[in-house]
Here is the input.
Amino acid sequence: MSVRHLTRAAVAVASIGVLSFLQIGSASATGKTSAYYLGKEAARVNYWSSTDDFRVSDTLCDGFSSYAQYQRAGASMQTLRNSKGCHTYADFNRSFTGGQTIKYRVCVSIPLEPDNCSSWKWDSTS
Here is the structure.
């Protein structure tokens, strides 16, 4: 085999490796956002666009529950609640049509006060 053929083969293998890496990378969690109470992370939401899964975590033993809100373009706001207590999470699976814009955030539910919420995180469904 000539050097020229070996070079072409090496480039082809490297290209396949790069494409495989890009596909695997898109299957990981696309984002997360956190809400804070008294300067500490109190709640977190993770979103996986590849499976339309949300995980709502209560990360602080503060006596408050956590919830996430999400909204797709042209749809109403939806709420996902985790009332299990500190250091727990609740998983939610949704089946969205691919290519939709979605925004989500997480909040700490504080009685008699405004809830502490993260900023909105924007993503798209797969």
